[in-house]
Amino acid sequence: MLTTYTCSLQMAATAWFPATPSSFYSKPFFTITCKAHNPLALSFTKIEQEPLALYSSVQAFAPATVANLGSGFDFLGCAVHGIGDTVSVKVDRHVRPGEISISDISGQCPDVHKLSKNPLCNCAGIAAIEAMKMLGIRSVGLSISLEKGLPLGSGLGSSAASAAAAAVAVNEIFGKRLSVEDLVLACLKSEATVSGYHADNVAPSIMGGFVLIRNYEPLELVRLKFPSEKELYFVLVTPEFEAPTKEMRAALPLEIGMPHHVWNCSQAGALVAGVLQGDLLMLGKALSSDTIVEPKRAALIPGMVAVKKAAIEAGAFGCTISGSGPTAVAVTDDEEKGRLIGQQMVRAFQKHGNLKASANVNQLDRLGARLLSGVPSN
């Protein structure tokens, strides 16, 4: 008689690599089959083959994102061209096999020193670890260098961009074995430690363009194709004000009335229609019309109500809070007009919120996270 037992990666690691963090391991990777009368007669069968490293080092970039877009709370987001985070990953013999080390964190944002180099406490590290687990990497260790191009707590998907760039970099090193859904799930593990289990930042950062999250169990991601012949510019105005995601989520109502529910559902539908048709007038009106989330968060960001009014009066098709804030995002179809709109929004933050702010005008990023460079393995 044969008895089969499942041995987890953690059990094996305890014997082979005692220093490996237990949280690194979850998936079973071999079975033990033994005769009932002699449990010491073991045979091992791996259930997946570890991929080889095709690169000795890679560099990947992931773009910023605008999540929610008004009434699309937690299920709709898009990627923004030109700004984001860059992660370099290399096979490092000084790192224990199967582990991740963060060697360097740099960037222009003033709070970059607050980021931990402990991979279990860093968004890039957590996502990289999850990607390694999915790939079954046990024979080599990796080191990470993170370059922050996004300010922390800005409402532009800063943590998601770090996670996306790291997960994509790890996947690229080992031959792109993971699917888009796998990469998003790896990043969701990271996002859950920062702002909650929602993919409206990480999915568009990985996939590019507009993405709708239809379901989480199982994960279902829907690409919304904005017409390539249409121009779309985001006016992103970020004040010098911290709006921690967890605090901004805590301000949201636990219950809503049926009229608000019906109204927001109709606006979410109009958002999707506006994206697919390239109708910026419809898109702008819909993203400006959230009556559930935006009013609660706007009250916590000094000057936000006046900033939104200033953007629309300056010619924007619509304006709302990017993610959980404090960045305000307006949409237009012309870059020069976008600069003028941004100037008015900056002035409104100063006048009505007593906050200094900076403005950027960026197009839609249609590519998502991507490999920038790689050094092939010898």
From TrEMBL:
Matches recorded under InterPro entries: GHMP_kinase_C_dom (IPR013750), GHMP_kinase_C_sf (IPR036554), GHMP_kinase_N_dom (IPR006204), GHMP_knse_ATP-bd_CS (IPR006203), Homoserine_kinase (IPR000870), Ribosomal_Su5_D2-typ_SF (IPR020568), Ribsml_uS5_D2-typ_fold_subgr (IPR014721)
Residue ranges occupied by any GHMP kinase N-terminal domain in the UniProt entry: 128-209
Reaction(s) catalysed by this chain's protein: L-homoserine + ATP = O-phospho-L-homoserine + ADP + H(+)
Gene3D superfamilies: 3.30.230.10, GHMP kinase, C-terminal domain (3.30.70.890)
Involved pathway(s): Amino-acid biosynthesis; L-threonine biosynthesis; L-threonine from L-aspartate: step 4/5
GO molecular function, one term: ATP binding
Record bears the keyword Transferase: yes
All copies of domain GHMP kinase C-terminal, residue ranges: 273-348
EC numbers: 2.7.1.39
Entry keywords, A to Z: Amino-acid biosynthesis, ATP-binding, Kinase, Nucleotide-binding, Threonine biosynthesis, Transferase
The protein's enzyme class: transferase
The UniProt record lists the keyword Transferase: yes
Gene Ontology biological process terms in this record: threonine biosynthetic process
A Pfam family that the UniProt record links to this protein: GHMP_kinases_N
PANTHER family: HOMOSERINE KINASE (PTHR20861:SF1), HOMOSERINE/4-DIPHOSPHOCYTIDYL-2-C-METHYL-D-ERYTHRITOL KINASE (PTHR20861)
Family: Belongs to the GHMP kinase family. Homoserine kinase subfamily.
Name under which the protein is recorded: Homoserine kinase
